[in-house]
Amino acid sequence: HSQNHTDWDTNLHLFQVAFNSAKHESIGTSPAEIFLGYKITSPLENNWNLDDLLQTQDSRDMQRRWSQALDRLEVAHRKVARQYNQGRLPVNFRIGDLAMFRRVNLSNAANQISAKLQPLWSRPLVIHDFTSPVTVTLRCPKSGKLIRSAHVSHLKKYFGPI
């Protein structure tokens, strides 16, 4: 398939069969076996007569497989959630708090601006609203005008006077 890049999709159905018949770590079996109740045959097995070797599945076996797959999915979900949430801190900002956002400073030689001499943080702004659990809109405390949105990881609380 690497010789001619124009007909890569001619064998896509074989990749789909391989994927659906492969054992997945999260469910402990293949997707085809979960949904169909038996292992699907490969194209090679279709050329041979293996019907005598296939066993019929009863409904209790199917329920057991579904139960096992759901249990394994829950374990996999907890594992991924534990890894994803590792090192995460709770959001400790509230509406009405004063905060400063981290500025992204760029040097500009034409205007004689040096990024390392610019302030790292903005002036104090008021948290107006949460647009998501980790994104806030900021407004000017004096004019009330909405300034921008910011992620809470780019904010720090301001405790001084306005």
Describe this structure in words.
The protein has a 5-stranded antiparallel beta sheet, with no helix packed on it. The mean pLDDT is 87. It has 162 residues and is an alpha+beta fold. The protein has 2 domains: 8-85, no CATH class; 98-157, SH3 type barrels (Roll). The longest helix is centred in the middle third of the chain and has 27 residues, at 59-85. It has helices spanning 12-21, 31-36, 43-47, 59-85; strands at residues 98-101, 125-132, 135-139, 146-151, 155-157. The protein is elongated. This is Integrase catalytic domain-containing protein. One of its GO terms (molecular function) is nucleic acid binding.
Layout of secondary structure:
Blueprint: H1 12-21, H2 31-36, H3 43-47, H4 59-85, E1 98-101, E2 125-132, E3 135-139, E4 146-151, E5 155-157
Antiparallel strand pairs: 1-2, 1-5, 2-3, 3-4
> Describe the biggest sheet?
5 strands, antiparallel
Helix content: 25-40%
- Total domain units: 2
- The proportion of residues in beta strands is 15-25%
| N- and C-termini, Cα separation | 66 Å
Q: How many β-strand stretches?
A: 5
The string of secondary-structure elements, in order, is HHHHEEEEE
Organism: Homalodisca liturata
Protein name: Integrase catalytic domain-containing protein
GO molecular function, one term: nucleic acid binding
Q: Main traits of this protein?
A:
162 residues, 5-stranded antiparallel sheet, RNaseH_sf, alpha+beta, 4 helices, 2 domains, Integrase catalytic domain-containing protein
What's this entry about, in short?
The protein has 162 residues and is α+β, with helices and mostly antiparallel strands. The chain contains 4 helices and 5 strands, in the order ααααβββββ. The protein is elongated.
